[in-house]
Amino acid sequence: MRWIVATALVLCSMPVSARAQDSTAVVLQQARDLYERIELERSLPLYRSVLSPGWRFEVTQAQRVDASLYLGAALLLLGERDSALAHFRAALERDPFADLDPSRFTPAQLEAFQAARQAVFAIAVRPILATRLDPRAGRMTFTIATTHAASVRCEIRVADQATAFPAFVGEIRGGLREIEWDGVLPSGQLAPSGRYAFVLLARSLVAARGGTQVTDSTAVYFDIKQEYPALEDTLADIAATDLLPEQYRASAATGDLLKGLGIAAGALLFANVASSQDLGGANGMAAAVGAVGVTVGVTSFAARRGGDRPENIAANERRRAERSAANAEIRRRNADRLAQTVLLISPAAGRSN
Question: What is the three-class DSSP state of 343?
Fold first, then answer.
């Protein structure tokens, strides 16, 4: 009695979803045990209760498929082939990847299951698994399934753009097919970070009733994130305020002219003050000095006014060349780092086929 009470308390304290899953799993296990002991009539009500719309516990997709497969297998052994085929078809419609293990089921069951495959057309893409893809050495694999022979087109689409390209186009005879992709776009560019879709478009090669061919489509979504070593920022262009002036300012030329004129004026003034009749006139010397001053001032004015400064121009060119070489080396290192890019693949949250 204490054990029963303790178990009841534990079950009551568990989340509802956990208790529901446990209840479904327990019933399916009981049904499987009865099937394995060939107590088929006793297993049928359990499988049917799990598949019933009135089943009050949560049932996963995989559990529904498993219940349909075993219910069909049990009905076939009991001679109810049509009902068995109906449940096999239901399993395949829910999951085209569903199959029977040849080591666990009889040839008759396997034959009936294959007949169900031909009677229903369903396709699927296996969910994307998180992976780290090195485009230089690896491939990511998309696994598709069709219940029978079909003409298929597999596309990879960029979810927020109109970009789409085929990953595989051809016929498959039914069953599984693996499609590989190296993470490179048709342009040769590595797939940028973003959301993508793997889209499967299929047309049955088995004519349905009335001679029509059935078509179907499905898709899975996944995210890509590029991963690479941290990149360096290039150096900014040298600001004009950080460069040496490459031309003389007009004020410098004017100053030189004024200096020359000042020298000439000073020489003439000195000559008038210092002249002596006994020593002889100094006007000739003063005139010569003044002429030299005027000549130098005018020559400097003409040379500097709007003229280039070669030494500064050369110094600025050296600085620009050094900056350009530094940026070229940074870009080279960044290119080497980008060449090491790997793609982090993950299923897109909230999206499924």
Answer: strand
The pLDDT of residue 199: 96
Q: How confident is the model at residue 268 (pLDDT cuts 50, 70, 90)?
A: low
Please compute the mean of the pLDDT values over residues 166-185 and round it to a whole number.
93
Q: How far apart are CA 293 and CA 266, in angstroms?
A: 10
Burial class (CB in 10 A: 0-12, 13-18, 19+), 175: middle
For residue 300, give every residue at least 6 positions away whose Cβ sits within 8 Å of its Cβ, in sequence order, or none.
253, 256, 257, 259, 260
Non-local (6+) Cβ contacts of 204 within 8 A are: 121, 148, 149, 150, 213, 214, 215, 216
Distance separating alpha carbons of residues 216 and 54, to the nearest angstrom: 30
For the chain, how many residues are written?
353
130: DSSP letter: P
The residue with tokens 């005027």 is 294
CA distance to 108, 249, 319, per residue, from 243 (Å): 90, 15, 9
67's tokens: 């219940």
Residues 66 and 73: their CA atoms lie apart, in Å, by: 11
Reading across the β-sheet that carries 123-125, which strands appear in turn? 123-125, 140-146, 175-181
